[in-house]
Fold each of these.
Amino acid sequence: MTVWQAIVYGIVQGLTEFLPVSSSAHLLIVPWLLGWDSPGLAFDAALHLGTLVAVIVYFWRELIGMVMALPGAIARPAATLHSRGSEDFLGRLALLIILGTIPGLIAGLLGQDFIDELYHPVGVSPDRVIVAVAVALIALALLLYWAERVARHVRDLESLTVRDAAIIGLAQAAALIPGVSRSGSTITAGLFRGLERADAARFSFLLGSPIIAAAGAKGLLDVLTSGLDAAQLGIFAIGLATSAVAGFAAIWGLIRYLQRASTTVFIVYRVVLGLVLLALVAVR
């Protein structure tokens, strides 16, 4: 892998991890379109460390507050979860994130190897994978369009309930499928639950941080135990740094964008990209 490829992959990962367009899909599409070798699962997972850095930098106040509030929330979980006072908000948010993370962790433990084999097949034409990705891109776009049509956009983060966290957490589990998108599925579920768009995005990013951290830690372990030389480690570091910068820009930009606009541009992008991919496969 060249430095240029690491930069491109870092930008793609950083932007698409948080925009509702699927990072895993784009990390399959880019090498397919450009004729590059796949970055590999270790590099793919290591890029998650960059996006984790972006989450930590952007949400550092909330994250520190939740860490500090978590012991008290764990000591009285029922009272914290049913409280609607602002003084218990960060503790309640921490518990809801833990609850919402469980479905994704279970899905990852049980289904990650199957998904990897299905979407990173050995000796099989990648066109089949691209078709599956295109279908997932279009399917989630239609679901997001439906959510926009029926959503009330009246609730904020402080109104989140256990049911909300469970439903949005289940939606996050579906993001194992390339083309679905972690942020896309969780923002869509948040909209169905009546959240304002920007608050749906904020909870999506916070909810995704534990799983992003787990993926990044696994990637880092794979990298450190794979015997890479200094030059290769440097390329991985460049990709990580690039994904961190791009990820921060994506978080900052999307939250501000959703404060004044809908997700229509992403719905259109997903449908157009899916149709273009199907057309390219058809003419190859």
Amino acid sequence: MKDLDHYAKLPRKRVHVAALIFNELGRILLVKPSYKDKWSLPGGSVEAGESPLAGCVREAQEETGIVIREAKFLCVQYVTDAEKGDALFFMFDCGVIDESQLNSVSAQTGEIEQCMFVDIKEINLYVPDGVATRIKAGLDAKRDASMGYVERNT
């Protein structure tokens, strides 16, 4: 079919998601992946046929054991990388986890080594610059009850 040939020639972009999860003190949950030097937000790649929201819920549960009940879109970051190609990173506000969920937070599988809550002011000490930029855009969108967009070239 002529239409399908056209779509087959279009560029593909990777889609990733991140969950912004807070504890009752307003600290942000970070995870330490075994395959990275720095910390990150819970999240990962969206699977084929999966929406960004569904991917966020799935990844957060797989990595931390937390079941996300509600999530609100905050921002998207477009990243172009000469080696890895183009990607879109969707961030969702997954709310504050209560005391019962807090006790169940733990690193899952062999992919995540550790989980911890970090004060917003200390984020730059743990995460790469691109993740810090995304977190700031997400926090700004949350504060302003808006949505954010960020671009980054590497």
